[in-house]
UniProtKB/TrEMBL annotation:
This is Transcription regulator TrmB N-terminal domain-containing protein. It comes from the Archaea. Pfam families: TrmB. Residues 8-74 form the Transcription regulator TrmB N-terminal domain.
Amino acid sequence: MNGLVRNLTTLGLTEYEARVYAALVGIGEGSARQVHEASGVPRPRVYDIAEGLAARGFITVRRGNPYLYIPAEPAVVIRHLKSAADAAATAAVQDLEALSLDARSKNSPIWYVQGEWSIRRHAESLAAGVTRDLAVVCLDYGEIGEFARLIADASRDHPVSVLLPNGKRGITKPLGDASLYAPKPFCTFFQENVFEKVYCAPLSVDGAAFLLEYIFIADDRVCMIVYREDGVRNAVVITLPFITCVQRQFVNRMIATAERIEGPGGSGGGSVPSRVTGQKEDCGA
């Protein structure tokens, strides 16, 4: 009995609740006196414990003289307890992550994020903090679905621009009112040394392969870069103005010269090439 009670309390029952429920499962049904004898719970407490369990659907009360208590199926009770525990665990992680995010943003202008859940959580926090506009550079279409709702939700309240080097091809989920763009070359130096070599191609550093997936920029205050290092997904969040402003200027320039392929005003005309090609202009032009 003691091991069972420990497991039930781990799932969220109090010790007396666990003892009353376990006793009822063991005897099938019983009065307060029988439950008291089987569980060791003081008889006066059996009544209020049983009423609480009944309110949660864990036992049924057959009113009469005396009242009889009948346990719900263990599988049903355990499933409910596990679901509640999972929900509580998820909420706790979210709250703790929010506290961590606040602390990091106050104490450090650059920090690293690891793990799929943490990356999504930080992206959601970034989008929720937008006050003016959001820009997204999407280089991995295979994963855009996970951020589709985030982009669509943000586009309801603020302008959102999404740069898609391969056009809309491969985008299967709606992105709300976001404006979608296919970037065109605008500067020889940036096109050859930054966009093609850093944005769109793997980088090899000290034997590790880095591949850029996304850049999120909220206003020009927060920049989140999602990338893979030897196939493992990571992210870096930057609030240092010298970096965020420069990133935003690059993105703004790409948007200014890009071809709009879809947006609140409707679809753009023509097809979009699968690679960024065309006449390059000089940076000083």
